[in-house]
Amino acid sequence: MPGRAGDPADGRYIPRVKRSTRRYLVQGTLYVVFVLVVLFVVLSADWERIQPYFFNPEIAASLFPDIVLTAAKNTVIYTLIAFVGGVLLGLVLALMKLSPVLPYRWLATGFIELFRGLPALLVIFAFAFAVPIALEWRPPGGSTGAGLIGLIIVSSAYIAETIRAGIEAVPKGQTEAARSLGLNPLWTMITVVLPQAFRIITPPLTNELVIIIKDTSLLFIVGMALDQRELTTFARDALSSTASATPLVVAALLYLVITLPLTQLVAKLERHNKRGR
Amino acid sequence: MAHPVTGSTTAPVAVPAIEVRELCKTYGSNDVLKGIDFHVDQGEVVCVIGPSGSGKSTLLRCVNRLEEPTSGVIMVEGIDITDSETDLDAIRTRIGIVFQQFNLFPHLTVLQNLTLAQRRAKKRGKREAAEIARRNLEKVGLAEKADAFPAQLSGGQQQRVAIARALSMDPDMMLFDEPTSALDPELVGDVLGVMKQLASEGMTMMVVTHEMGFAREVGDRVVFMDGGVVVEQGVPEDVLGDPQHERTQSFLSKVL
């Protein structure tokens, strides 16, 4: 049984090693284990076989420039559409959820709980194929547009909760000051509450943006025309035509090029916010 | 009226600025205000004192319906503000409120803090609103801070900006809710100085405060509240110097 420090009964069983020496020994052991594991992986893997399959320079080169000019560009465009749409719809849902009118609250709560509870892939699939047939609706942008609407709806459900939390985090005194100056509820919301709420939720909202970037890969399900393809669809098609995993690796790197700066930004904003409080 | 006003220095005016009758306010089973009769005449400075929890801030907040009264009548310049037909936003532009916690808008500059409601609620033009804002900033001694953000100001400066913000709406009266309670002691004087100046210009004022010196020097009338009722009121010399009621005596012996 590990004894507490300073417990005299302990001293008898532990060899007379200085506390600091013991700490160095433990840390040193951890480093040695790490080096051994790395060496094992590097030496045991057959790099001659793995390298051409995962990173074939010729295949990688053949992907450019289309993988950037079409696929990465489309990923960014779909992300922006889904994010802007998600924030706008999420704002409406958040305001409905805070509304004094009970049916609005019910409606918003039902919407949010439904689409947070469903897999995004299923919603996108439904909007791309089931909804257009059932409603005889021709979605703008074809099935890609319909899939995007599904993505907007899913993300809006999450963003709505973020925005609601942000609005509720604005001190009540701000609303009271605005109302006591004669500002009506609408102007109070627009000019006083929302600007502060969005400042508060910038880090979680940026996180939502990163999630949407990754979720645009789910749009592969709708089946895209060549010039509509985003990174994952593009890489998947290249995977089957080249019989190499290289396109996946290149696509993965391009995702990281987009998401890593954003996650760094989130971390920076969170540090900044902490200081500001 | 239940409490005769003894020796008020202001001339009687037909319509009081604020008139409260039998005001009750209940939170659940907690009676905060138990039938308050209270008034402020035009041009009068009324200081409301009392222990914390006595209901004095709630009374002030009821006057522009930041709190919904449970029952009773509240008239502002003869208009019943508890009537659902009353345009509350319009009435509120005539009542300036200064809060304990300043409540400046942190995302706006000082000047924008002062012009926002002028433009949206009073529909003033950009230039006119800025002009009025700068005049009021000058009045509170902060003309050079127009482009600063609230976080860059000291507490005393923030509170003076809050006063200037309320004044920029050209209110008929100013309500102060413990305006110096959140301030470091050395900053209290500047804020009280601005309030004194306002009083000397004839502004109608209702001041909930713990500053007995201010109440004595500036107040036309002092109202002592305890336990949700008005216990005693009158000119400052009488209420603060020679309190008649036992509760007033015990409170004053603790704070003076």
TrEMBL record, chain A:
This is Amino acid ABC transporter permease. Residues 72-266 form the ABC transmembrane type-1 domain. CDD domains: TM_PBP2. It comes from the Bacteria. Belongs to the binding-protein-dependent transport system permease family. HisMQ subfamily. It comes from Arthrobacter echini. Its main location: membrane. It is a multi-pass membrane protein. The keyword Transmembrane applies. PANTHER family: GLUTAMINE TRANSPORT SYSTEM PERMEASE PROTEIN GLNP, MEMBRANE COMPONENT OF AMINO ACID ABC TRANSPORTER. It is found in: Cell membrane. Keywords: Amino-acid transport, Cell membrane, Membrane, Transmembrane, Transmembrane helix, Transport. Pfam families: BPD_transp_1. NCBIfam families: HEQRo_perm_3TM. InterPro entries: AA_ABC_transptr_permease_3TM, ArtM/GltK/GlnP/TcyL/YhdX-like, MetI-like, MetI-like_sf. The chain crosses the membrane at residues 24-45, 76-96, 117-135, 141-160, 181-201, 248-267. SUPFAM superfamilies: MetI-like. GO terms for biological process: amino acid transport. One of its GO terms (cellular component) is ATP-binding cassette (ABC) transporter complex. GO terms for molecular function: transmembrane transporter activity.
Automatic annotation (TrEMBL), chain B:
One of its GO terms (molecular function) is ATP hydrolysis activity. This is ABC-type polar-amino-acid transporter. The keyword Cell membrane applies. Residues 18-252 form the ABC transporter domain. It is found in: Cell membrane. It catalyses: a polar amino acid(out) + ATP + H2O = a polar amino acid(in) + ADP + phosphate + H(+). GO terms for cellular component: plasma membrane.
